Amino acid sequence: MQVNATFLIQIINFWITYFFVSRMLLKPIYCLIQRKKIAEKNLLDKLKEKEQFLLVDQNRKKENLINFKKQVKDSFKIKALKQTVKSPVVQYTKNPELIHKLIEESKKVIVNKVINAH
């Protein structure tokens, strides 16, 4: 096996080229890829943290809504009980004018309650 000068020059040329390519091209690209991976990991961590915060906040709001519904329900029960206790005393007579007046007033009360119910 003969080793001539061109073979040695090719080996030296290969190592010089490899050195410059690795320093000038591969190392900056590798560093750029690593920075992007780190940035992506940081973004994913922040997203998970925000998601946890939103879940906690959502659960707190659900609990507040349930408590509010209970309070409203209880307050309407109390109002309904108070309204049933305060029933007006009505005396019926055989006077047609008073009966007609009573019917008209009853209609107005019913209409007002239906309108205010919605």
Describe this structure as you would to a colleague.
- By secondary structure, this protein is mainly alpha-helical.
- It folds into two domains: 5-87; 89-118, no CATH class.
- The chain contains two helices and no strands.
- The longest helix is centred in the middle third of the chain and has 81 residues, at 5-85.
- It is rod-shaped.
- 0% of the residues are buried.
Any key phrases for this structure?
rod-shaped; 118 residues; 2 helices; mainly alpha
Given the C-alpha coordinates, what overall shape results? rod-shaped
Written as H for each helix and E for each strand, in order along the chain, the element string is HH
Strand portion = under 5%
The biggest beta sheet reads:
none
Number of strands: 0
Helix content: over 70%
Residue stretches low in confidence (pLDDT < 50, at least 5 long) are none
Q: Label the structural class.
A: mainly alpha
- Average pLDDT confidence is 84
What is the terminal-to-terminal distance? 104 Å
Rg, Cα atoms, Å: 43 Å
Q: What is the number of helical segments per DSSP (H or I, 4+ residues)?
A: 2
Number of domains: 2
Write the layout of secondary structure elements.
Elements: H1 5-85, H2 96-117
Write a brief structural summary.
With 118 residues, the chain is mainly α. It has helices at residues 5-85, 96-117. It has two domains: 5-87; 89-118, no CATH class.
